[in-house]
Specification:
heterodimer, A: mainly alpha, Cytochrome Bc1 Complex, Chain D, domain 2, two-stranded antiparallel ribbon, globular, B: mainly beta, Immunoglobulin-like, 3 domains, 5-stranded mixed sheet
């Protein structure tokens, strides 16, 4: 806005060549390699998922060696976030009951988030160290432990976006708008 | 010169002492050279880097290691600016060490010109400086459930701080790269070990978001995102991505873990609120509060902070009778949008037990709710956005306790 106003003022004075342009030209073009190296985000429609595949059976050993020490042998013991559990199966009573544990199976709305987050930030002591097949395997393992897919189901860039998560339809966009209403 | 032994408690100074001492240990002693009459001998030499008085050593309270949080000592501060080294911390995988010579910010996705900005390029753009608060959306949990009397302002609400931030408006950078039609969100991604990522609506970029590289007159502290961070004024802390290294424009949100599994608000109606960015109006009396003791009845200045993520604070009312009657407090200038505002009210304590409360109103007409009002709409299971009215119980012996009870 500021630059636009300055240009408008410059035009009005008939001195357009001395005013600053909308673009100053700082920075440099990003190379395709730079973008590829950093563009790790995975979206709900599957964009960003790499080649590779895994099943729960593949992922069990990786989970045991890389994840279980923090998340528990079955994903329910902690001490870090509990990842496995479908209770309560009826309703979505998390707003009423602070004792309920939020897991992948009962609270995560998108399966693609699992790939994105594990690839991005896990394991905590060596983030970004898992190969795509290993991430797919751990994702499959967690989905299987949460009774969402079969232990033989292949998880890859084609199948993961279509995995239906139990909590998906419970999420709503913020409706607070300020003003006197308490929401 | 006499060598005078001063207890650690005294070193911490003033009202701060008791809280700090509780953290650092009361038994520790320090040996400090204190002349009996400082007018009778020259003082210290000049120094390249100043230090706080030995008698005033406010400290953050640190919880956890590299995954945790540290809390600003709100009861030890005056005015509205938080010293940078006392700014609260909340990290998801520790504080990274980033070489400013190698730093770069990549902006790509639905843009005409995918561009890399180094720090020199960012600093060359026309800059802005603005005072804004930051607040973790989990701040204030101890005022919402598991209520306890032995909580200080720092332990209740220490996950908020105010700084003067300097940087380049994100709108400037977006004009530079050329935003494509249909771009509605952008991913903000950090260069820490969590590669922390949040989706932000593009309107915030055109409004008041900035890439900040300065804090209170100096480069950002590492704990606040050195060399550069996203600042989205008034929005929950986790969206102000520190150590920002990548911005990707898109037509949809990315649904990262930090906007699905975390930082969402389950409600009593069986839904979970997502993208609850704005921090609603809140206030907290920072004096008197636990563990202060009022030594005598009489005139005391009640003082505290109020803030709203939606704009300016327009009034703060204070009650000294458990909310039955309210008196408007003085708002200390400057009163800035999306910034801590200092309020003050001279209050005469008659020696009776009483409950002190403050209630903020912002420029949208939003009034800080009571605990019962907020619990009614949010439920007990919610984990973020605890902005209900707080209270301090002043007892007949002058001791002050956190005053919200079940």
């Amino acid at each position: 806005m500021r630059a636009t106003r300055l240009i408008a003022a410059a035009v009005a004075l008939g001195t357009v060549q001395s005013g600053p342009p909308v673009r100053l030209g700082f920075g440099r073009p990003a190379t395709a390699d730079e973008i590829t190296a950093w563009d790790i985000a995975v979206r709900p429609d599957g964009r960003g998922l790499p080649a590779g595949r895994g099943t729960a059976r593949d992922g069990a050993a990786i989970y045991a060696s890389r994840c279980a020490s923090c998340h528990g042998v079955t994903g329910q013991e902690g001490p870090a976030d509990r990842l496995v559990g479908r209770e309560p199966r009826e309703g979505f009573p998390f707003g009423r009951d602070p004792t309920l544990v939020k897991t992948v199976g009962n609270y995560w709305p998108y399966a693609t988030t699992l790939y994105d987050y594990i690839n991005r930030a896990m394991p905590l002591n060596a983030p970004g160290s898992l190969a795509p097949d290993e991430v797919y395997g751990v994702v499959a393992y967690l989905l299987w432990r949460n009774e969402i897919i079969a232990d033989t189901a292949v998880i890859d860039a084609r199948t993961l976006p279509h995995v239906g998560m139990p909590a998906r339809h419970h999420f709503v966009v913020d409706d607070r708008r300020g003003g006197p209403e308490i929401r | 010169m006499d060598r005078v032994s001063i207890s650690r408690r005294r070193l911490l100074g003033g009202a701060a002492g008791a809280v700090g001492a509780a953290v650092l240990g009361r038994t520790a002693l320090a040996q400090v050279e204190v002349p009996p009459d400082p007018t009778k001998l020259p003082g210290h030499s000049l120094s390249a880097l100043g230090e706080r008085s030995l008698f005033a050593r406010p400290r953050r309270v640190v919880g956890g290691g590299y995954l945790g949080a540290s809390l600003t000592p709100l009861q030890d501060l005056c005015g509205i600016v938080t010293p940078a080294d006392l700014h609260y911390e909340r990290h998801h995988a520790g504080v990274p060490t980033i070489d400013p010579q190698r730093y770069k910010l990549l902006i790509h996705g639905m843009v005409e010109r995918p561009t890399v900005f180094d720090l020199q390029a960012l600093r060359r753009f026309p800059a802005v400086s603005r005072l804004h608060f930051l607040e973790c959306s989990g701040n204030g949990g101890p005022a919402y459930r598991k209520l306890r009397p032995d909580l200080s302002p720092q332990l209740i609400d220490g996950l908020t701080s105010t700084s003067e931030w300097t940087g380049v408006p994100l709108a400037t950078l977006f004009r530079e790269v050329g935003v494509q039609p249909g771009a509605k969100w952008f991913l903000a991604e950090g260069g820490d070990a969590a590669v922390m990522a949040r989706s932000i609506p593009i309107e915030k970029a055109w409004d008041d978001a900035m890439i900040a590289y300065g804090q209170n007159g100096e480069p950002l502290r590492p704990e606040q995102g050195y060399p550069a961070r996203l600042l989205v004024p008034g929005w929950e802390g986790s969206t102000n991505v520190k150590w920002i290294r990548r911005i990707e424009l898109a037509d949809q949100p990315f649904m990262t873990r930090e906007e699905t599994s975390k930082y969402t608000d389950p409600l009593p109606d069986g839904t979970a609120r997502q993208f609850s960015f704005v921090m609603d109006a809140k206030s907290l009396i920072t004096f008197p509060g636990y563990p202060v003791t009022l030594p005598e009845r009489g005139w005391w200045e009640v003082s505290g902070l109020a803030w709203s993520g939606r704009g300016r604070i327009t009034r703060v009312d204070v009650s000294s009778d458990a909310g039955k009657t309210w008196t408007p407090a003085e708002l200390q200038q400057p009163v800035l949008p999306k910034c801590h505002t200092r309020f003050r009210l001279l209050w005469r304590w008659d020696g009776a037990e009483t409950l002190l409360m403050s209630r903020a109103t912002d420029e949208t007409g939003y009034v800080q709710p009571t605990l019962a009002e907020l619990r009614h709409v949010r439920g007990l299971g919610t984990a973020y956005h605890f902005n209900n009215i707080r209270a301090w119980r002043v007892r007949r012996d002058g001791t002050v306790l956190f005053g919200l009870e079940e």
